[in-house]
Amino acid sequence: MILTSTMTGIDSPDPLQHAFKVKSAPHAARSGSRPVTVDDALWQQWWQTPTQADKRALYIHIPFCRKRCSFCNFFENGAKPERISHYMTTLCQQLTTAAQTPLAQSQPFDTVYVGGGTPTDITADEIAQLGQAIQGFPLVANAEVTLEGRLNGFDDDKFNHALDNGFNRFSFGVQSFDTEVRKAAGRFDDKDRLLARLQQLSQHPTASIVIDLIFGLPGQTMDIWQQDIQAAMDSGAHGVDLYQLIALAGNRIDKAGEKGKILGTDNSDFQADSQTRANMYAYGAKTFEENQWQRLSSCHWRSDERERSIYNSLAKSGIEILPFGAGGGGNIHGYSMMNARGLSEWHQAQVTTESYSSDASLAAKLAPAKVPAMTLSPNPLVHFDAIFKRGLDSGVLDFNNLAPKVVAHLKPLFEAWQQHGLATLDDNGLSLTLAGRFWNVNMQTGLFEFFDKNPIV
């Protein structure tokens, strides 16, 4: 039996701060797949074949931003209106075609997520157009349909057009309420304007209003973070995500760090280390729960039952997610796909498809345009791994979901986690401590490493 500190963490009087060295990635995964080439025949076959999945989602990518934030390395395209308009027209046409296929019509979708980029930078009419295209897919009753974006520029016209066309959940990247920290991070709007707008939106009787906060931003001291948590509760938001700043290669913070600089505020060059970020997470988690917010995952809390976080929960369960748009990711019939980000190539694929689908009878049988993408073969372990990803992310791994042989095999790892203050173990399952919830991605990574080095015979 091989056990390493990257699997188990280390013995420490303060596991919250020191069980692992640092969180180095936003997600954990292991690969049992290989790259595959998808020709036109296979692509057509996929869209003409009914799904075998019982849970499904749509992911739609809007790859435009008006401004690049300091912590982001995903900036793709500037938000030029004519470029966005061309993209949205083409995207909605592709969605309309896809919605009519046997693949799409064979099983309703539980949730839809429109991400980016900054989807709220599109116009009110484009939001309506997109919502109508989404409604062409079969959706379960009361399906969760999320529009992601920023509060700046999201006026009542956009909000009402979204509501009138099927959107019922709105996820805003606030990151911090502090005006100076926001300015240093490249965000729009000051604290007072953010709070006022969130309080307005949250008064809607049914829409779920969700915000993201990041802890560890340059210039964000513990005092400022505590004020951020209070502001989140004062905002009226129905759900809050707490995300740790990750040193993603290529973003402005990373590039400044390579030069020995910190992109702090005019008043502070403070940069939280891993131990301080752990304390920030603990403060946020404890404060929400002391104020009767319900924890739905290790990083997400809600104050109102209208917030369900369905997409984020199901995405960890190995469900089918049909991807649309340049840069969109998901999977079809178990084949993982990541669409290439290049807009020119994405648009050219639509033109090429149109050139051979002019005949109406042929067009009715065609799939949406096959865009440039990286595709991987089905991972035979995806549903098995999803049990652990979903369980550890929620904070509770129920042994009823696992064969006794698997539980017995993992017992040395689970006992090490318990010894190191990351979990408590009993006959029914494994429950993560506060420290375990903070380090849950490291623990997932360690569990997959354990399987790789200690295969089940």
Automatic annotation (TrEMBL):
<keyword id="KW-0408">Iron</keyword>
<dbReference type="InterPro" id="IPR026332">
    <property type="entry name" value="HutW"/>
</dbReference>
<keyword id="KW-0808">Transferase</keyword>
<keyword id="KW-0479">Metal-binding</keyword>
<keyword id="KW-0411">Iron-sulfur</keyword>
<dbReference type="GO" id="GO:0008168">
    <property type="term" value="F:methyltransferase activity"/>
</dbReference>
<dbReference type="InterPro" id="IPR034505">
    <property type="entry name" value="Coproporphyrinogen-III_oxidase"/>
</dbReference>
<protein>
    <submittedName>
        <fullName>Heme anaerobic degradation radical SAM methyltransferase ChuW/HutW</fullName>
    </submittedName>
</protein>
<dbReference type="InterPro" id="IPR013785">
    <property type="entry name" value="Aldolase_TIM"/>
</dbReference>
<dbReference type="Pfam" id="PF04055">
    <property type="entry name" value="Radical_SAM"/>
</dbReference>
<keyword id="KW-0949">S-adenosyl-L-methionine</keyword>
<dbReference type="InterPro" id="IPR007197">
    <property type="entry name" value="rSAM"/>
</dbReference>
<dbReference type="InterPro" id="IPR058240">
    <property type="entry name" value="rSAM_sf"/>
</dbReference>
<dbReference type="InterPro" id="IPR006638">
    <property type="entry name" value="Elp3/MiaA/NifB-like_rSAM"/>
</dbReference>
<feature type="domain" description="Radical SAM core">
    <location>
        <begin position="50"/>
        <end position="278"/>
    </location>
</feature>
<dbReference type="GO" id="GO:0032259">
    <property type="term" value="P:methylation"/>
</dbReference>
<keyword id="KW-0489">Methyltransferase</keyword>
